[in-house]
Design a protein that fits this description.
Elements lengths: L1 E6 L3 H11 L7 E7 L3 E3 L14 H4 E3 L9 E4 L2 E5 L4 E4 L4 E3 L2 E4 L3 E3 L16 E2 L4 H11 L5 E7 L9 H15 L6 E6 L9 H13 L2 E4 L4 E5 L4 E4 L4 E3 L2 E5 L2 E3 L1 H6 L23 E3 L12 H19 L12 E8 L2 E7 L8 E5 L3 E5 L4 H18 L19
Parallel strand pairs: 1-2, 1-9, 2-5, 9-20, 11-18, 12-13, 12-18, 13-14
Antiparallel strand pairs: 3-4, 6-7, 7-8, 10-19, 15-16, 16-17, 21-22, 23-24
């Protein structure tokens, strides 16, 4: 019997397990999924926890509930991947051999990469919201915070869900307005990018939104250290930004097992063909989701579109056929803008976000590069879609390849 091992049971790994289990003969192929713990987190939901919109029970479910029967599930951290021997060593000593390996180990924040970040201010007046623990701690803090200087800082790119820090800024503006203390809160958005976002056209639009909401944008700020006692962040060129409350998006890194295995880049992301999703490590290893080094957003929609492409290419590889499916970098992101409104952007490697209607040309119901209530409803509805359709590998009406239909150049 031949073996497929999937490392990681987050969004990408779970979708791949469901897709492959639905077509492969269980008498010929054994699928094993490995993850470090038994709970699946709806990570886009972290954004809403600090503002009391979601609670942990809304975004945490048992992993096993979303993986197909017949797939072996192993709960264990990974020790090391040994490509030359076609095997994975787990902590505790178990060895998993494979014919094909899919790495979907994701990314995680590493605040220790920034000098002073995890010092005396950590979880006192310095918080993240990219973990459930951080988002929950920030929720408790915001309940009693009476105002001051709120600084939202992105340490460096790439990060998971590049629009999430902007969404946090917009929701903070809404939240403090609802609490009646917006006039007591100064919000500053500090980024290493030259503008509000990575894509110029969207950056201009989103920068205007920050300005309209009274949120100051500080660009080209590469954080060097945190001086927690003085409550300030300092860039490598010695610019200083003071804060009363710091919400940080720390350095995002790939799984430490990738570093131990010796084939990741400086952030432990895996060299990957940006179209076929085959690794550059060995031809029987494929990579998906946040674990890749692709010049695409690290976002759930990207994992979804990649899964459609990788599914075709894995089946081709199993049959020893050329890998013909091509990923174009497609990303599709709702942007919550506060006050029950939102935006939507749709883009790929070569095409910037454009205005128009989505997904049906001329009809929508969603509007691209436009703030609408329908976009907000789409954002909030996606949690149901995620748990009930996306993770299970169901066919969704949005194709993996970005379409120009309905867009205006």
């Amino acid at each position: 019997m031949k073996k497929i091992v999937i490392l990681g049971a987050g969004t990408a790994g779970t979708i791949m397990a469901n897709k492959l289990a639905g077509v492969l003969d269980p008498d010929s192929w054994h699928i094993t999924v490995v993850d470090r713990d038994g709970t699946h987190h709806y990570q886009p939901g972290y954004l809403f926890v600090p503002f009391g919109i979601y609670s942990p029970r809304d975004i945490v479910k048992p992993r096993r509930d979303y993986l197909p029967r017949g797939v072996e599930v192993v709960i264990s951290p990974i020790d090391v991947i040994e490509p030359d021997k076609n095997r994975v060593r787990l902590e505790g000593g178990r060895v998993l051999e494979y014919d094909f390996l899919i790495i979907a180990t994701g990314s995680r924040i590493d605040p220790s990469q920034i000098e002073g970040m995890t010092g005396p201010g950590w979880r006192r007046d310095i918080f993240d919201f990219y973990t459930l623990e951080g988002a929950s701690a920030l929720a408790r803090h915001l309940k009693h915070w009476e105002g001051g200087r709120l600084v939202i800082n992105i340490a460096e790119m790439p990060i998971k869900c590049p629009v999430a820090p902007l969404e946090f800024a917009f929701l903070a503006d809404w939240w403090f307005t609802e609490q009646g203390i917006r006039d007591k809160v100064e919000i500053e958005y500090v980024t290493p990018l030259p503008g509000a976002f990575t894509k110029p056209r969207a950056s201009e639009l989103l920068g205007d939104f920050l300005d309209r909401k009274g949120i100051h944008l500080t660009a080209d700020f590469a954080i060097g250290r945190v001086e927690a006692e003085e409550k300030k962040i300092v860039s490598w060129d010695e610019r200083e930004v003071p804060y009363d409350l710091l919400v940080t998006i720390p350095t995002n890194m790939g799984d430490p097992a990738i570093e131990r295995s010796g084939f990741g880049d400086e952030l432990n992301f895996i060299p990957t063909d940006k179209h076929t999703l085959q690794s550059k490590v060995k031809e029987n290893i494929f990579v998906i989701g946040d674990a890749t080094d692709l010049p695409a957003s690290k976002a759930g929609s990207v994992a979804h579109f990649e899964a459609d492409i990788l599914f075709e290419n894995i089946l081709s590889a199993l049959d020893e056929r050329p890998l013909r499916a091509r990923f174009d970098g497609h990303a599709n992101c709702f942007i919550e803008s506060g006050f029950n409104k939102g935006l939507l952007i749709d883009f790929n490697y070569d095409t910037e976000p454009l205005p128009g209607k989505f997904p049906l040309p001329g009809i929508g119901p969603f509007s691209l590069l436009e703030e609408t209530r329908m976009n907000h409803y789409g954002k909030m509805m996606f949690r149901w879609v995620y748990w009930n359709l996306l993770l299970r590998g169901a066919e969704l009406p949005i194709q993996a390849e970005m379409s120009m239909a309905g867009k205006r150049a």
